[in-house]
Amino acid sequence: MTPVPADSVPLPADFAQFVTLEEAQAAVRAALPGPGTEWVAPEEAFGRRLAAPLQAKVAHPSATESALDGIAARAADTQAASAQAPVTLRIVGESRAGQPFAGEVGPGECVRIYTGAPLPPGADAICPVEQLEFRGEGEVSLLTPARTTDVRHLGDDFAPGDELLAAGTRLTPARVALAVAGGHAQLPVLRRWRVALLSTGDELKAPGSPLAPGEVYDSNRYGLRGLLLDCGAEVLDLGRAPDDVAELAARLDAVGGADLLLTSGGVSMGRYDFMRDLLLERGEVTFWKIRLRPGGPTLLGRWNGLSVLGLPGNPVSSLVVFELLVRPALTGEGLRTARLRAGAPFGHAGQKTAFWRGELRGGEVVPYPKQSSGVLRSLSDAQVLVRVDPAQLVAAGDEVEVLWLG
Ligand SMILES: Nc1nc2c(c(=O)[nH]1)N[C@H]1C(S)=C(S)[C@@H](COP(=O)(O)OP(=O)(O)OC[C@H]3O[C@@H](n4cnc5c(N)ncnc54)[C@H](O)[C@@H]3O)O[C@H]1N2
Ligand code: MOO
């Protein structure tokens, strides 16, 4: 039988307590190993981060071409064209995307042309088909002048050697398309982080199973899993562990090949907060407790060389701490913040930096009515977290910094 531990554990001397949010962010970033590079095909690249800058290998467009379906002509020939006095040109050929016109466009001449087709030598302007009247074989009347602005020039978008994307850029769909347009068939991306996930607590139950009073569904693991996937990480799901020191130690021992272990629960001040005990007594602790609300009891440490971030069990706390510490470390990006006007006062949390759940009302942000860390609906309903620093006073009408929730 596991002995019941004392309420307070003896604290080793060499770790930080009550660190600031910024210190905690830096420590979590430092707890990850160096990133590695791998090459992926464009179809595998969505959501990944570039490991190196990407230069264009080709020009886009690859030729000077038409932006419209119509005719290509010499602008000077068509200046006088109008609906009342159309200008008639002789059609000497056709230019299609992939099948350019071989000859040259002379005075009084034009070629039929389609969007993306190369502009033939001699021509410098386009008149769209809506402004044309075809006169039997070989002749066309223009109801407006042909425009040079409907020509897309060689390399307008980018030229060979231009930097298209910086190292570290997250590959959105538009950026994957840009990389392909720039001539890349393989992209250097950062290796995916492999993050293990473990929920702790005797009271945790699988989704949908019968629930006795005091029991709770293991919702944190599903929220955290989604956040990890959203950050492009690979999830090693370790399920649930009971409140039992020996069992917990065995589960930690068995984690293989992860860059980071995220746990939820068991890090606060209770007798059965065994994640805290294990790391304090038998592992290493970098910090325990952040001057932060929610998420104060968060613990960062190591277990046999494995970095472990112990998130608090309270449902809001675990997900908020992820947003503040884990997302920036995994993505290498700063917090997604903005400034908004407060539509009502926000309190501070003493010496702690508070992140209150906020709802948008007519362009202003107001506090969600229930701010307890157990009210998971606050996080689901809110659009932003409102940062209030220690002793900061926020009155209605003041600007506040907010963090967008995904
Ligand atoms: N005397 C003190 N008590 C507490 C303090 C404190 O400073 N002094 N800090 C409070 C704060 S703040 C938080 S946050 C919690 C964190 O506690 P633990 O990390 O030890 O979490 P548990 O006690 O295991 O659980 C707390 C709460 O969350 C529920 N829970 C746990 N895991 C899950 C899960 N996977 N899915 C859904 N819900 C979960 C659990 O049932 C509890 O209700 O400590 C305060 N106490
Ligand atoms: O920090 Mo606890 O996370 O406030 O409930």
UniProtKB/TrEMBL annotation:
It catalyses: adenylyl-molybdopterin + molybdate = Mo-molybdopterin + AMP + H(+). Its cofactor is Mg(2+). Its EC number is 2.10.1.1. It is an enzyme of class 2 (transferase). Pathway: Cofactor biosynthesis; molybdopterin biosynthesis. It comes from the Bacteria. InterPro entries: MoaB/Mog-like_dom_sf (IPR036425), MoaB/Mog_dom (IPR001453), MoeA-like (IPR038987), MoeA_C_domain_IV (IPR005111), MoeA_C_domain_IV_sf (IPR036688), MoeA_linker/N (IPR005110), MoeA_linker/N_sf (IPR036135). SUPFAM superfamilies: MoeA C-terminal domain-like, MoeA N-terminal region -like, Molybdenum cofactor biosynthesis proteins. Residues 196-332 form the MoaB/Mog domain. Keywords: Magnesium, Metal-binding, Molybdenum, Molybdenum cofactor biosynthesis, Transferase. Catalyzes the insertion of molybdate into adenylated molybdopterin with the concomitant release of AMP. Belongs to the MoeA family. NCBIfam families: Glp_gephyrin, molyb_syn. This is Molybdopterin molybdenumtransferase.
